[in-house]
Amino acid sequence: MSGSYTSAAPLRGADETTAGAGSVPITVIEPERTARGGIVVLHESREFPPALQRFMVSLAGEGWIVVAPHLFHRVDDDNVHEVFGQELFDDFDAGFDWLRRRGVFPDTVGVLGFDTAGTAAFLVATNRSIGAAVSVAAPGIVTPLPAQDAALVDIAGDLQAPWLGLFGADDPATPADEVDRLREAAAAATVATLTLTFPGLAHRPDSRADSDSDGVDAQTRIYDWFDSNLR
Description:
Residues 28-204 form the Dienelactone hydrolase domain. The chain is an alpha/beta fold.
């Protein structure tokens, strides 16, 4: 069915008798036409802000089933603003498996992540057989984040899925020299990679105004990357 709705995706290895504890809540947006693949959207906020919701709807308008795991479903403390580590990967796998049960082939599944979830999307692309990955504003490039085993520059050559990285020139979490090092390291991978830097912070289709030309360009780059690689 088309439209937006919430559902639950079982976690791998979960006991079916544990109900909610064995699944992750997901928000799903389905295209009106027959889906040509699926995209797991990772995000680092408790709510889906309006700009992110619009972007997810626009991805569905491009023909993708969009699945966004609710990454904070295990955390009751509102003061916790980051989810990372194995639990985030478990939630990605649950979204991936949900898409597979809908008949989506693995090579037509993409992952898109923002901030530390963008780092996770990169890590997913180094050890999961998926069609494509996009990281937006992913930190941990040279110095690993907590619960991140290796810096991105050290594992960029292991990328197994075509990867697109979008960064802001003035983002203190991703200094320009580190982005340059990541671009060089990713170029050694056996898959296609593209690392782009936008002026200021105009690289966030999940938060920029629709009229922002650089934000629109970043969004178009994401569309084009999935168009080219999820086949």
